[in-house]
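$ ./design --mode recover --in tokens.txt
reading tokens...
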């Protein structure tokens, strides 16, 4: 087994602000409704950018969301417009099936929200799942991933699961800087392939200046009879893997710090209005 670790420093996220923002976002979406052409409309009448109901009832289990592809030129355009979003989802009519869609599995704002996404490309088919516990005051985030190459064998299949215990995360960053790190990483994930399996963990601790120091650890090992072969491969690949983990962690930390630096610490109605504006226009106001 090979193990790699790298520690990065990131700006701390205020828990109160994060939970207030999550509550405001859930409120805005819970009050939304289906508009003309499957658009999702906020309570103030503005449509959410990039979100369209393609099948089912809005905010009901089984509802399918996505973007309707732009109409193709030619004779099929009128027929596609007449058939509407349902035809695009089912693949009937002149338009191909939508290659990516998000299906709502559960919408219980006081308990949990579950969504599932299917991405189909020529070389790979991916199925991703997300479950958020306690959406208004997020307690945990769970992720699942399964992928395969259409027509490929077991060597072209992989799966993974991950979970972030947010209560444990806040407890870990609320410790004294001199205290030892949490014994159990509050965020971890596993990936499994026929030839190998990997485990990724994130362990945070507070720094003296109030920022967070997060240790990213990756362990990889071969499976079954291929363990000796995997050990040889990992011996030669150790350098690139270690460098890749370090670069990925540093890049993610830089993006996190940039995003937090751009956030305006709004609260109350001002925060709610800011989130609503972001849903309607993610790119921000355009210059005239």
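writing sequence...
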């Amino acid at each position: 087994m090979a193990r790699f670790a790298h520690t990065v420093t990131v700006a701390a996220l205020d828990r109160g602000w994060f939970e207030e923002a999550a509550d405001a976002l859930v409120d805005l979406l819970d009050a939304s409704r289906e508009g003309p052409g499957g658009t999702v409309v906020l309570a103030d009448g503005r449509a959410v950018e990039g979100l369209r109901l393609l099948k089912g009832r809005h905010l009901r289990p089984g509802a399918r969301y996505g973007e309707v592809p732009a109409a193709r030129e030619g004779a099929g355009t009128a027929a596609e417009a007449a058939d509407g979003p349902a035809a695009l989802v089912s693949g009937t009519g002149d338009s191909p099936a939508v290659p990516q869609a998000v299906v709502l599995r559960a919408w219980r704002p006081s308990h949990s929200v579950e969504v599932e996404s299917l991405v189909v490309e020529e070389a790979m088919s991916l199925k991703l799942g997300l479950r958020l516990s306690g959406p208004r005051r997020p307690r945990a985030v769970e992720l699942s991933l399964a992928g395969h190459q259409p027509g490929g064998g077991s060597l072209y299949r992989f799966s993974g699961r991950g979970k972030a215990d947010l209560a444990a995360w806040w407890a870990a960053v609320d410790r004294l800087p001199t205290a030892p790190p949490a014994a159990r990483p509050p965020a971890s994930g596993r990936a499994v392939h026929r030839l190998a399996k990997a485990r990724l963990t994130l362990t945070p601790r507070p720094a003296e200046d109030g920022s967070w120091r997060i240790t990213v650890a990756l362990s990889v090992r071969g499976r079954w009879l291929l363990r000796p072969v995997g050990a040889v491969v990992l011996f030669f690949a150790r350098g690139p893997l270690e460098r890749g983990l370090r670069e990925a962690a540093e890049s993610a930390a830089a993006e996190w710090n940039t995003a937090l630096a751009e956030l305006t610490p709004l609260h109350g109605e001002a925060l709610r209005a800011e989130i609503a504006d972001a849903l309607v226009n993610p790119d921000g106001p355009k210059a005239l």
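exit 0
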